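Late entry, written up from scratch paper. The run itself happened at the end of the previous shift, but nothing got recorded in the book at the time, so transcribing now.
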Amino acid sequence: MPESSPTPEAGFLQRWSRLKRETGPNQPDKGADACGPEPAGAAVTLNRADPDRGGRVAAGPEGIMPVPGDTLDEVPVEAEKAFAELTDADMPPLESLGAGSDYRPFMAPGISAGLRNQALRRLFSQPHFNTLDGLDDYAGDYTTFEPLGAIVTADMKQHLRRQAQAGLKRLLDGHDTSLQQLADARTRALEALQQRPQAIAGSIAYQSAGRVLVIGGQRALETAVRLQAPLSPQVLLTDAPASALALPASRLKQALVPLAGRRMQVRGHLGAFEVLLEAEEAAAASTVLQADLVLDLQLQPALVRGILPPGYFAPGPEALEATLDTLAQLTGQFSKPRYFHYDPQCCVHGSSGIRGCTRCIDACPAEAIISVGEKIEVNPALCQGGGACATACPSGAIRYDYPPPSHTVDSLRILLRHYRDAGGVVPKILFHRAGHAPQPEALAPNVLPFALEELAAAGPELWFAALAFGAAQVLLWDEDATPEQAHRTLQQQLAIARTLLTGLGYPPEAILHLEPGIPASGIDPGPVMPAITPATQAGMADKRQQWLLALDHLFGQAAIPAGEISLPDGAPFGVLTVSQERCTLCMACATVCPLQALSGGVDRPRLRFNGAACVQCGLCASACPEQAIRLQPLYLADPVQRRTLRVLHEEEPFCCVSCGKPFGSRRMIDNLQHKLAGHAMFQSERARRRLQMCEDCRVVDVVQDPQAMADFS
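Output as recorded:
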């Protein structure tokens, strides 16, 4: 082996130095072009921009390391020495470094490890070092996950069951009772509830002769042929000609009605459906089809509601057979309960032509409630007992009446009292839909099921009544059958209820909505509410009064309750703020308030406010000509403070210039004179002075004024 050959142990720098010595100043560069020897002063920048070697011009101080493309055998010894002598003081500020900066000086042996790491961190934070190709198994962000929403997985159910079992063990140990004692107490309480007489409710009658209108195309024709007596089909063809199916010579041949581009409107209910076919041309006559039942087989049904009218069916292909079996049974007389009661006297839907509350209309999934002037109208044949309207109503003008609210509240009180009398502890009320009752054996023995016609039929007044009667928690068990409008109403009321609980010093989880999929065996039996002295008041038909009684009881039992609780928008409790600069005490607000939450003064111009009666309907703010009223959702927890009349605004009275009787405020008279200054009937001095008289003197003066009488004539 030649003498100049490196040994295997030769280091990197030794090989580099040897090669440079072999290519002395009088020897040509082995790998360079024949350009002669390089000057000594060019040692640092040797081949930095040689395109044949793939090099580039690098910025930075002298003595820097080679860039990619530089050949090791071309770096002079002087560069190696200068590189080795670099220290932290020779480095540029880190803030000045960017994507095109030269980071090689930071690799010198004299650079501290901390500064070198900071420079490398800045280098590798540049965007071109952080582009993922998507092939890396760990390229995804596994620190965040898409929420499951209301989905309850099998693992989650099992976890809930384990938690419930552990909670039941703690409950038994903490109250020195047994599982059998709690189960016996629940059995006695449920038996006492079953012995109560059922409430009597009104009923709504239907009459069906079996006339079925089938809406659709080819599928509708094929289905109509299958309908047998006592059903008599008629087909409204939407997208198929009558010749699309070879029809037998039967009654169906005379029962085909083509839609022919007309607009279709379906209205009515079982036994009284009307389908209006309205032509696009104004001069063309419209057609009305009548039917007892409607089978809508369109891809997009004519009616899309949370609860469809009785007698209207829009099944998918998988549910068609079951629907046909149901249709065969819908001939004759039928009845259903009358689910609601409406009291127009306390309705705040409108007043004096001003629109107010529409919460019941917005909440009804059956679209059974409409606006009729200043009041509402409920179609009892369309109402299917969803109950969301009564839950949303702030004044109690519409209430759920199957059974009446007083009967439901009394049933709750009896259930909880018998459970405690039998030795039960920590009772929890589980509201559920009557058609989806959980098995008592699957529940913890201190969870008492309470059936409702619909889950949304139980509102905050019932939830708080249960807590006032001593329930440790109120649970709403939803099996995903609640329509969207009713579910939205429930969530709004739950937000109000939890805010009230927090303000009173109780846990907001005392009223809990269980998402669909929660197993009955996974309900935690542990206490949530602190132990209180149970209330004993009887049930009431007045929703608002029932709610306030329960809240007052909880307020009296609370340790440190808040005096005022700010509530979310839409809450049925609140106060009013009146602008002192704008209000003229015209009393337009008091005139339109159906609940007398606003009233005037007796002996002087004054606007008084009764916080216990205000439901935040907004009629007063809409009626105010000066826009001086603002609503503020707020609950006055102290009953004494809530029932005390507040003076929102008052002024010195303005006395009649004729008899001296006070009849208004100075600002109101000034405002009236300003607005009528240009009116033709108030151009004379006598007419303008009449504006400063009371109503009696004004009439007398008009009769005695010939000019005024001439104007009237």
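Residues 574-650 form a domain with the Alpha-Beta Plaits fold (CATH 3.30.70.3270).
(Scratch paper discarded after transcription.)
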